[in-house]
Amino acid sequence: MTHLDKLQCLKDRAHMLKQARSFFDSLQVLEVDCPIITIGAPVDAHIDLISVNYQNHEKRYMHSSPEYGMKRLIAEGMGDIYQLSHVFRDGEYGTKHNPEFTMAEWYRLGFTLQQLIQETVEFIQLFLGQIPSRLLSYRQALMHYAGIDYTQMDVDGLFYYIQTHSIPFYPSIKEEGKDALLNLILGTVVEPQLGQDELFILAYYPASQAALAKKRWHDNEEVAERFEIYYQGIELANGYHELTNSQEQRQRFLEANVLRQALGKHSLPLDEFFLNALQKGLPDCCGVAVGFDRLMMLRHQATSLAQVIAWDWSQA
Amino acid sequence: MAQASTNEIKPGMKVEIEGSPYTIIINEFVKPGKGQAINRIKMKHLLSGRVLERTYKSGDKIDLADVSESQMRLLYKESEGYVFMDEKTFEQLVISNESVGETGQWMLDDHLYEIIFYNGEPVNVEAPTFMEMKIIETSPGARGDTASGRVMKPAVLESGAKIQVPIFIEQDEKIKVDTRTGEYVSRVN
Q: Less crowded by CB within 10 Å, the N or C end of chain B?
């Protein structure tokens, strides 16, 4: 482990927070400050939330991203906005995770996914310098790094791949279906290889992994207009061409809750303020969330997030 | 049986997998994109040293092994095994040659060893990381040998371990050895 002077790191962090703000200033993207604790919950099958009790009887949720609040503001006519915010995720703790972390999230009206990818690369380069970038679709990346075409494979085929490649798996994974199997292959085989000396953009996810992204057809494959950016095997950004249809959004929340229950988790209350805002009309936009602490970790060649934040979860 | 969540598993903890005890080496939390979080856990079999890698869904429970350690003094060796004494209770315990295994080469009377108990039974003995002992057998170092690039020579220690020592070390000298690797560390004066 490299020795890092913590105070020097934190001084540089202050400098980079300022740099991030001037980056958005120069693009005329406005800073907003949406609430961290909300009545409705961000609903995602695989993101668990930390809740709080208001006056010992009202359960509220610490946000896992400022997304819903920001989209409400956009629906109200706020225009291009960003938020630099602490966000919270239950159980996510390791060398590259801390249950409380800092996220830079922004939305651009009328942008294409390509334009937002370009802007996100520029933002990341503020921290890491002028490294080149490369884009592969999710399908291409799995072909290139794992040697499989996922569109041609079913659950049995993927499970066979995992077994024959000696990838350790957990017992229930096959019942959890295709996305769970793809997720294991992505996490253990593909991700560690991504972005060794370039920013790697993984784009056009399977439609079944759309989250809050629009879906569309691409080369006879239904894909989500979603991208992630990796550097040195570490995931830095997650962006979408945002879903604006409130009915489809409600449907995806319900599906996520069904999946949560199948995984033995509680279902979560939907954010009706957010769904109403979509119903009133969210302008066509693209948005992205970037892990600020991870950028600082890579910038300082640190081996864990704990080295670049004031105190990690065990010391906070 | 006591259990711990994958989120609580830390290096050094002892777990039980399919009836065998393992020591955790590393627990890596992995969460690709928006997918299921997993823990990739590497562990070492407490007796055989074999390394096992397992993947768990984050939050799954793992059985904890009933493993304890205590320091005991080696009194003497007898045919079936080694006789140790608990320093506090003065109780004596015979540990079989089989349980002692390869650690047998580092056994010296009147030294303290770490005894590992699994379900109350002694299953393993760990030697101190560094031990000082006498060389009972080695060939005299010839001056010219360094020129030919040969700087180490074989030696037998009083515990029976066979190691490599620098050629300037003579028989009956005392040296310090790293029992994990069997490497010579230094001369002891």
A: C
